[in-house]
Amino acid sequence: MTADMQQRFSNLGEGDIDVLIIGAGINGAGLFRDLSAQGVNCLIIDKGDFGSGTSAAPSRLIHGGLKYLETGEFGLVAQSTLERNLLLKNAPHCVEPLPTFIPVFSWTRGIWAALRTLFGSKTAPRSRGAVLIKIGLGLYDFFGSRDRVMPKHRLILKRQARKEMPHVTPAIVAGGIYYDAKISRPERLVYELVKDGCDANPKSLAANFTTLDSVEEGRLTFRQADGSSFAVKPKLVVNAAGPWIDHVNTALGAPSHLIGGTKGSHILLDHPELVRSLNGHMIYFEADDGRICLVYSYLGLALVGSTDIPADDPDNVLCEEPETDYFLESVRSLLPTLRFDRDQIVYSYSGIRPLPASDATAPGLISRDHSAPVKEPEGNRPFPIVSLVGGKWTTFRGFAEEVADTVISRLQRDRRESTRYLAIGGGKGFPADGEKRGHWIKDLASKGNVSIERADELLGRYGTTAAPILTFASVHSDETRLTGAPRQSFREIDWIARNELVVHLADIVLRRTTLAIEGRLTIEGLREIADIAAAALGWDAARTESEIAEDVTGQLSRFHGQTLTSTAPAAGREKTPRPASG
Predict the structure, then answer these.
(1) CA-based nearest residue to 164, from 272, 277, 276
(2) pTM value?
(3) 378 near 48, Cβ under 8 Å?
(4) Phi and psi for 276 in degrees, rounded to 5?
């Protein structure tokens, strides 16, 4: 924890917090920023790191939800496409356009099944034909017209489709191309929202690795990672614990049954030939069993996902062998001229979506819309509890705005700032066009004493936060790079460790950076990071060794199928191509 944040906690009184937010995933972090911007004194806590739960396990897409058209959730599609467009503007350092290809295997199939689903059938439609896809993409463009920043869709015939996607099975008859977006660093964006909230209101506080010790007469006592404790008496509590919502409500004395989560897993492949052939596109396709799958280039790797399986143990969720087999078989069927095998897997991950309890027979038909039910004060509990149920990564800002309006109304206050066009973290002051970007990069290169190319790289990685990273007083030079990750400097790690509320080594390698998911970590590189963090955070030798062995290598092996070695990643791995512009 930074010295400034430690000082804030040391001065905290029981009545200093208006709103307590439990859970620092994307929904909690978005609400924390919004309420803090309205002058509400907020405290956000999480039993893990910021963005370390379900919010770290998405498909890494910022999308409008094309498939929600089939279930008639037009309002959700309209909100999602708007929020997608806004995120492209507000977080350009993390979010970028993603042209998406849909393989089409027939002309008219699926129409009646889609109509049944639209009118309430609980059975998922199969094999959507060209007519259905054309109608769907037209509707998608219509709903995404507000604040539009990307081209409209197009439908192409087989010859052109196979020219653009050369490894796709010849069984297709056509292909659709439309635009959504992807997020390169979702975990980092969650942290940036928390940081923005703390900056917006000096009386707001954030604490990771903090657990609830007791609840008594409206007084909640928490214990922090360093063993210290504090107590607050909030006027209102927001339960943003995602799949843990029902557990938290029980601990608060208000048992609930709100969550019926489903598990979503993904794998990342080191497959340069596939990445080249995708040319910056995602392929969004139907697997042989009717489930929707996707594959696209992510930081030089191929990301494949996802499953949708009922599950209820978020603390022990991981991608299991049958899911891996399912992914590999699905892409083999779609791309029969390419090799897919387990030896290409660099990383895997899984999370439980905090969906509302549902009796739907197909998990994919459970609504991704959100709600915020309230449990009013009762008995010895003087504060109401607002639970954030459901939702999706893309709509966090809109969800936060809705809940924030409810909260400030209960506090008898008024909204004083909209977050609709409020830039996030490194998106603040981000150069809006090529000319401005060129000037910004040239100025940063001069101030930071680095090349134009390096300044451009850091702008893409951190947004405008690249400026303080390159100019802060550090004993480490930007020219000193990590073993196995030659594009990541000691200086970057030093900045993160000292300034970004890091508690554990995994916070750096799994969330503040993408080193682990990219497969860029080696044993030597991890030790270098640990030594830098130890110097910044005051760890002794025993703590440093524990962080390496238990916090990182143990987590990577158990939950992500990754065993660190002394060997650096293949030198031939390519940088992800930039998306086509039209």
Answers:
(1) 277
(2) 0.92
(3) no
(4) -60, -45
